[in-house]
Amino acid sequence: MSHGRESSGTAVITANAVRKTFGGGSVVAVEDADFTVRKGEFISLVGPSGCGKSTLLRMVAGLLERSSGVLQVHDRDVHGPSRSVAMMFQKPTLLDWRTSIENVLLPTEIAGRVGDDDRRKAMELLDLTGLRDFAFSFPSQLSGGMQQRVALARLLQTGADILLLDEPFGALDEFTREHLNVELMRIVAEVDATTLFVTHNIGEAIYLADRVFVMTPRPGRIAGIVEVPFERPRAPSLQQGAEFNSLVSDVRKIFEGAK
Amino acid sequence: MTETADLGGRAPRSRNRAIAAKHLAIFLALIVSWEIACRFGWLDPLFFPYPSAILVGFWRLYVSQGNIWPHLGLTMAEVLAGFAAGSALGIGLAICVGMVDRLRRYLKPYVIVLEATPRIAIGPVIIAAFGFGWTSKTAIVMLVCFFAPFVNTLNGMVGVEAEKLSMFRSMGANKVQTFTKLLLPSALPEISAGLRLAMASALGGALVAEFIASNAGLGVLITQYTGTLNMTSAFVCVLTLSALGYFIFRGMEALDRIVVFWSDRDRIDAAGRRRKAAWRARMGDRA
User: Which domains does chain B have, with CATH numbers?
Assistant: First the structure.
């Protein structure tokens, strides 16, 4: 592996035969998920809708209890939300009556008292996501892309070292999404977080990740894992290269093999 | 963003004044044509008195005799007390129901039955129970004012996006935090709309209650005056109610703009500026 940063790290998420069924066991949403995510790694979960990628993410977040199997974060069994894991959704989920900075401070408020250090940190995070000038704007005054930047700053304000992103830029236009993907890579590298990123876009999944977990539906399972060897930082032009295209076809082959 | 804020500001004062002048002109034209219609016998002044006579009636009822005041005061007191009690009960109960799923299931059929029952039908029952005085009127207003705030508060709380609730859960928020920081503010626009609806029906509820059986209040006054064909004074009462209804409506609108400030462009700009100033005062200029 030519990318050293993550391969040497310790395991922060471990899944062993994780299974999730709905409707009293009649619908299998996730079947026998086995994987390890190491510290600082960026993992993309890619697959068509209904392949259980969001379900898997929600189990890691502690929002959804698994039906069976072992799921550990920082060597502790996951039962409910934890301080070290934070999640971002497809919708910005901002509170309309709060300014950007107040939205960013929400996790701190929920965790306890807000001090001036927290306020400074929140402002720095808005700076990091390029929104310092909009710190006192309300969500209705921001574009969709800017709203997701606020949500990203809020995600980082939690102080969690594991970030779960469920198609965070899926509702945005192509140009905004690409731009935000570049920003996201820069930001998670800067805060040194471990990231699980759910998407149904193969190119996006490869471009962002150190490893791509390819998921197939009915029942939802991880059909294969593709290593992405590119060095960081990665330029957007990378996506036109032959090596990139061969990775795309690797992912496609896994989908086709599963049919 | 502060630079663009002034572009969408409200109309300049001179334009507002021009609009007010037009309204006044139309109003005066209406009054004059009414007066003319009476003078030429197109309207029967026995049932539709001269505007000039009504104006004199206003002077009599409000100033020289001043006999409208106790009735006006009583009706207003019934309206305000009934509105306050009814909407507080509606909102409070909706919050309880909204926070406890089980309660929602058990209470739902009763709420539907209550909604289906014409509230006025319960009027005589309440008067029989509470007597002819202000308590029964207040109770009827309360009943009229209960439902809209109840339903709207519940809808507002239940309608919060699932993703926002997930976000709160993932942050480890407890029930109280989820309520005060998410559910209640999310429901505020609907609660405010419910209060507007309740207030709109409160005045009507009080009057109908007074019509049914009462010894004082504007409703009683109207019945007495029309019974003796003193239409001028009856009109004074009706127009008083129109004015009351108008001011109540505008008051509720103003309240809505303050409470739900984030749906109003001007207010949102002002709020942003205020919060920025507060931040700078606290954190220093590096904001």
Answer: 44-286 (1.10.3720.10)
Closest CA to B238 of B49, B44, B22, B107: B49
What is the spatial distance between Cα B138 and Cα A41, in angstroms, rounded to a whole number?
A: 66
B262 with A138: Cβ contact below 8 A: yes
Q: Compute the distance between CA of residue B224 and CA of residue B217 in angstroms, rounded to an integer.
A: 11
Asked if the Cβ–Cβ distance from A99 to B268 is below 8 Å, we say no
**Fold designation for A1-84+162-173+193-259:** Rossmann fold (3.40.50)
Nearest CA in chain A to B287: A123
Q: How far apart are CA B144 and CA B12, in angstroms?
A: 40
Average pLDDT over residues A79-108: 95
> Is residue B115 very low, low, confident or very high in pLDDT (cuts 50, 70, 90)?
confident
- Listed in order, strand segments (DSSP E) in chain A are 11-22, 27-38, 42-46, 68-73, 76-77, 85-88, 162-166, 194-199, 211-216, 221-227
Q: pLDDT at position B286, please?
A: 58
Taking alpha carbons only, the member of A225, A221, A226 closest to residue A53 is A221
CA A147 to CA A165: how far, in whole Å?
Answer: 15
d(CA A86, CA B116): 46
Nearest to B90 by CA among B69, B116, B111, B60: B111
Q: What is the pLDDT of residues B148-170, one digit of tens each?
A: 999 999 999 988 999 999 999 99
Q: Which residues of A touch B285 (CB under 8 A)?
A: none
| Separation between Cα atoms, residue B59 and residue B65, nearest integer Å | 8
For chain A, report the end-to-end CA distance as a whole number of angstroms. 29
Chain B neighbors of A57, CB-CB under 8 A:
none
Q: Looking at this predicted complex, what is its ipTM?
A: 0.91
pLDDT of B3-51, one tens digit each?
334 444 455 678 888 999 999 999 999 999 999 998 888 888 888 899 9
For residue A7, is pLDDT > 80? no
Mean pLDDT score across all residues of chain A? 92
Domain boundaries, chain A: 1-84+162-173+193-259, 92-159
pLDDT of residue B10: 54
Going along A47-193, which residue ranges are E strands? 68-73, 76-77, 85-88, 162-166
Yes or no, beta carbons of A141 and B268 under 8 Å apart: yes
Contact A138 B276 (CB under 8 A): no
Cα torsion A232, A238, A241, A244: sign: positive
Question: Which of the residue ranges A151-155, B96-100, B141-145 has the most confident prediction, judged by mean pLDDT?
Answer: A151-155
Q: Could you give the count of Cα atoms lying within 13 Å of B172 in the half-sphere of its Cβ?
A: 16
Contacts of B181 in chain A (CB under 8 A): 95, 106, 109-110
Three-state DSSP class for A23?
coil
Helix/strand/coil for A19: strand
Alpha-carbon torsion, ordered A198, A201, A202, A208, to 10 deg: -60
Instruction: Return all residues near B172 (Cβ < 8 A) that are at least 6 apart.
Output: A81, A82, A83, A110, A111
- Before B51, cis peptide (omega within 30)? no
